[in-house]
Specification:
Chain lengths: ~325, ~140
């Protein structure tokens, strides 16, 4: 903003959501060519601890790329990696309007809204998966060398985080899940940009559908079935509704229509198991950071209450009950 | 403490973020208070069930537990950990993880799988009760 003068941050307040970052809403006021201007913005600052250990720069580059590609995301504006400015790195992006939820799409919303959001949800996923990551400079996310790599890399990563954050506890169901994932790696048919947390609860919407997909910090290159498997996990849904949006089989059929690619059931199953295991591990990380004093966010110990449901889902998928 | 947060603190908070933090603190205090009462019984039931399950697995005999699968070693370690005073729960659970992995991978005999699945079913049921019972009524 080289021609802007007299910047003023107005109404700064911390908001919930995006638990892996401290998130602040504010309005920026300034003058430009003698005219007063204002814009609603969001600041995302590195936490002292929390759910994920991911790179701010990487997240900013991914949002910038998908915004350039025309996907529905908030416009990224500024990235500051120098921790001396606001204690920790942060970035600023446009504040999109709309409402959101914690998980499954709210059953109280009108049917017409649900249908539009469900359609947009899969349209945006199809658009994301159709992008050529090279064209957008996203090789920085790490290009898998072999078709087996996406499954192996994700399994190894989350298993490593489990070993790091389990605080001496052994969780038989989770250990069994990682043993199964290691023994049954799937082979992808193509490499796409994976959002990494593509689900209900991570978008802003209104009565006309989705306005913006949020929380890109786990983005990487991988198997298209990974986001589909994650989005349709029982955990994010309600009864048989994937994400609370649509009956699961209809959801997969619509995905096939939107992408022109068939849903590979074997790979989908693998990524549903990985998804449940990953979510338990994310909870364990949050709990550990709270217990060890790296975060005071009271949502972190609350995560313990989510784990039993995930264990049940894993036990059902792996026929452990 | 929950009442203090609810009645004295919450009305003074204007930020939705701070209100959310206060609410989740209330929930966690409720969970913690309940866990103080119910966790010892839960832990005792877990250890008892783990020891009983491994005793049942031992009774199945060697022909059901192949040496190659690594389960015989896990069984011996679990029995030893269960015989300690007090029993080493983490060590027993580590061996149960080995058995659960064998079941998930299809490397366990039917009799072994039945015992392991029985334990996991009971464990999930106990955990469900523990957590449901500890959710606070506001």
């Amino acid at each position: 903003m080289p021609h802007a003068r007299d910047h003023r941050v107005v109404g700064l307040k911390r908001i919930a959501g995006g638990s892996s970052r401290e998130t602040y809403a504010f309005d920026l006021e300034w003058s430009e060519a003698g005219q007063p201007r204002t814009r609603a913005m969001i600041g995302r600052r590195d936490p002292t601890g929390g759910l994920l250990k991911t790179s701010r720069e990487r997240e900013f580059k991914v949002i910038s790329a998908v915004h350039r590609a025309g996907l529905k995301v908030p416009e990224p504006l500024f990235l500051e990696l120098d921790g001396s400015v606001m204690d920790r790195p942060f970035f600023i992006m446009d504040r999109a309007p709309g409402r959101t939820g914690m998980g499954a799409f709210a059953a109280t919303e009108p049917e017409s809204t649900r249908a539009k959001v469900a359609d947009d949800f899969l349209s945006e996923l199809a658009r994301l998966q159709s992008l050529d990551y090279r064209e957008y400079g996203l090789e920085i996310l790490g290009v898998p060398k072999n078709p087996e790599d996406p499954a192996r890399i994700q399994t190894a990563h989350w298993h490593e985080v489990y070993e790091r954050d389990r605080m001496g506890e052994h969780h038989p169901i989770l250990s069994a899940a990682f043993a199964w994932l290691k023994a049954n790696p799937v082979v992808t048919d193509r490499v796409v940009i994976v959002h990494g947390d593509y689900r209900s609860g991570n978008y802003l919407y209104d009565d006309n559908g989705i306005i913006a997909m949020l929380d890109w910090e786990m983005a990487h290159l991988g198997d298209p079935m990974e986001d589909l498997g994650w989005a349709s996990m029982t955990f994010w849904g309600r009864n048989e509704l994937a994400g609370g949006l649509m009956e699961r089989e209809a959801f997969y059929r619509l995905y096939e229509q939107k992408t022109g690619h068939r849903v590979d059931r074997e790979r989908l199953f693998f990524y549903r198991v990985l998804g449940d295991a990953k979510m338990v591990v994310i909870c364990l990380t949050g709990i550990r950071d709270f217990v060890e004093g790296r975060t005071s966010d009271s949502m972190m110990p609350f995560l313990e209450l989510l784990i039993p449901q995930l264990f049940e889902d894993l036990a059902n998928l792996l026929r452990l009950v | 403490m929950q009442r203090t947060i609810m009645e004295a603190l919450l009305p003074e908070l204007t930020s939705p973020y701070a209100q959310g933090q206060a609410m989740s603190t209330i929930i966690m205090l409720g969970h913690a208070a309940s866990a103080l009462e119910s966790a010892p019984a839960y832990d005792a039931a877990e250890i008892k069930d783990l020891r009983a399950t491994f005793a049942a697995l031992k009774r199945l005999g060697d022909k059901h537990i192949s040496k190659k699968s690594g389960l015989r070693g896990a069984l011996a370690r679990a029995i030893r950990a269960g015989a300690k005073n007090p029993p080493d729960r983490r060590a027993i659970e580590a061996e149960m993880a080995t058995f659960a992995a064998a079941v998930a991978l299809g490397n366990a005999d039917d009799g072994v799988a039945r015992q392991v699945r029985g334990y996991i079913r009971r464990n999930l049921e106990r955990t469900r009760k523990l957590f449901v019972n500890s959710l606070p009524t506001l």
